[in-house]
Structures are given as C-alpha cells and as structure tokens.
Amino acid sequence: MEIFQYGQREIEYLKKKDKKLAEAIDRIGFITREVIPDLFAALVNSIVGQQISMKAADTVWARMQERFFEITPERIALKTTEEVQQCGMTMKKAIYIKNIADAVLSGEFKITELYELPDDEVCKRLSALNGIGVWTAQMLMTFCLQRPNIVSWDDLAIRRGMTILYHHRKLDKAKFEKYRRRYSPYGTVAALYLWEISVGK
Known about the structure:
This protein is mainly α. It has helices spanning 8-17, 19-28, 39-48, 54-68, 73-77, 81-85, 91-106, 119-127, 134-143, 156-165, 173-183, 187-198; strands spanning 2-3, 34-35. It has a two-stranded antiparallel ribbon with strand order 1-2.
C-alpha cells in the first residue's frame, strides 16, 4: 500500500501558520491515507466514489479489482458496459469509465501528460471528460498525483472540517479562501486533517 507522503516540514509550517490547526495536528497525529499511483486506476476509483459513502465506494472498488485484477484501459475495453456496471455502480458511471478507457486507448486523451502539467491545466483537461468535474479532478490530484496544495471547496467534508475547527455557524467562500491561502503551499496536508476533523477526530 502506498500512502500520501508528507512529513515534519509540512507539519511545522502549518502549525506555525494556524494555532487551531496546530492543536488538531497534535491531537490527531500522523495520518496514513492510501494513494493510487496509477493515473487510470485512480481516475476510475474517483468516478466510483462520486456521491456515495466511502464504505460503499470501497465495496465497489474491491469488486472491480476482483473482476479485472488490474484496472487498466485494456482490461476495461474487453468488458461490456453491463459487466462494468455489475460491480455495483450506476450505469452512468459504467459508461463514463468505458468511454474514458476508449479515449485513453485511442490516444484521444493523453493521460500520462497529466503528470507534468500544472494543477489548473490538470483540472481543465480532466473536467473536459464526461463524468469528471472539478471535485473528481482535485481528488485525483490529491490521491494519485500527490499535488501539495489542493483544498477543495467542492468537498463537503473539508468544509465541515473547517466549520468545526474554526467554530463557524456557516462557512462562505471568502472565509474558505482565507484559510486555503493560509495553508498554502501545503494545503493538501491541511485537507487531510480537515477530513479527520469532519468525522469527529
């Protein structure tokens, strides 16, 4: 299992910048979050996880790994849309996954170029695919590319974590941006802690 890489440098920076976050970091300790280094597999995983609980997503993902062994465009292309859907996802998600596999195999979507592109361009290219929005692109940048400064406004758990941490009754975009700028350039590590805070850690 590969995990998101961060260490003392990021922790010390965030603790220095934000007293409340510093307290949470000391309370929670080091966070181990699995990453999927392969871009295509990570993209499929992100689609699977859209709008369902983490537990449900893990179940579907385990079925996919059992059925396909490796989640590659070639293996997905060999199966029908119905066979992909039978892993426990909606037909719409199965169609998205099949179409992206076809686009990668045809060369229409040059997925490996994402490794070298800046965050904004990665987001733009991914969002051009059917089934991929800004949130999914940001999750891919977090849990595959391990980009260091991703804090997603579209992620409800991150916003809930901020609301709890800073004792806000309501969190607007201006407050969110203030905190996001404060965490930069290590926003992704702050996001890991906000997710933990959102579930009561």
